[in-house]
Design brief:
Elements: E1 6-10, H1 15-26, E2 31-35, H2 38-52, E3 56-60, H3 66-78, E4 82-87, H4 102-130, E5 134-138, H5 151-171, E6 177-181, H6 190-193, H7 207-220, E7 224-225, H8 232-247
Parallel strand pairs: 1-2, 1-4, 2-3, 4-5, 5-6, 6-7
Helix pairs in contact: 1-2, 1-7, 3-4, 4-5
Length: 260
């Protein structure tokens, strides 16, 4: 058994989640891997056990189903060995809002926001009480850009960023690190599953590069890590502008331009 905290990773059977599993295994962490595809989980777990001599549990689960979600929540609440949660499970959706079915939109929101916040809620009190641990939430730069035309997906990722920033402010004084990771287009199966042809995209980041960069941010304890952003001061400027705007909001008085 590793003396490092166990890492629970959702969406772990492929793509970003599978690379996180490999990287944390290389660092000597035991793992709990969560995804729908048990065969892929079994194969990944067998390989990583053999290569790194670590303990790995798997939990086959569809996080849009409350029963499966409750199983993972219970593990996060009750297993004191789990000190890091990687909230990676997510999906995208092709087409415009008026073409997307209400059920498909609801399922996307359930996975990208409801499951993510419930899992964070399940582990955060225990980590705060212990005074240590980490929550990694995988968002997207689409959450910054309604112009990209992925309205519901982008809205869920904006939620992930806001939640992560808020949790960081609440939990970091208690010893718990919260990181939001914002990829741009990354070579994973999310595109095929959402009906989007990856070959129509001009630039794609390789998933290994994305996770390795995100882990540099993790080790630096960045609150927000944006691997494809080459000028970090752009993000700093955005945050400064946002905070400056907040300083000019006067709750008790209507702005002059809205007066009759």
């Amino acid at each position: 058994m590793s003396n490092r905290p166990t890492v629970l990773i959702t969406g772990a059977s492929t793509g970003i989640g599978a690379v996180y599993a490999a990287r944390f295994a290389q660092r000597g962490h035991d793992l709990v891997l969560v995804a729908r595809d048990q065969a892929r989980l079994d194969a990944l777990a067998a390989r990583l056990r053999n290569e790194h001599k670590i303990n790995i549990d798997i939990i086959p689960a569809d996080l849009t189903q409350l029963g499966d979600l409750a199983t993972v929540e219970s593990r996060l609440r009750d297993d004191a060995r789990i000190g890091i949660l990687v909230n990676n499970a997510g999906a995208a959706l092709s087409g415009s809002f008026v073409d997307q079915s209400t059920d498909s939109v609801a399922q996307l929101v359930a996975l990208n926001t409801t499951a993510l916040v419930r899992l964070a809620s399940a582990i955060a009190p225990r980590l705060a009480k212990a005074g240590e641990g980490a929550i990694i939430n995988i968002g997207s730069v689409v959450g910054l850009a309604p112009e990209f035309g992925m309205s519901v997906y982008g809205a869920t990722k904006a939620f992930v960023l806001f939640l992560s920033q808020g949790l960081s402010l609440e939990l970091s004084p208690l010893g718990v690190y919260v990181q939001a990771v914002l990829p741009a287009a990354t070579r994973t199966e999310i595109w095929d599953r959402s009906g989007i042809d990856i070959n129509t995209l001009n630039e794609i980041m390789e998933v290994d590069d994305l996770v390795d960069a995100a882990l540099v941010g993790f080790d630096r304890r960045e609150a927000v890590t944006i691997p494809p952003l080459h000028e970090a001061e752009r993000w700093d400027g955005l945050q400064a502008a946002r905070q400056g705007l907040l300083q000019h909001i006067r709750q008790s008085a209507v702005a002059q331009r809205y007066l009759p």
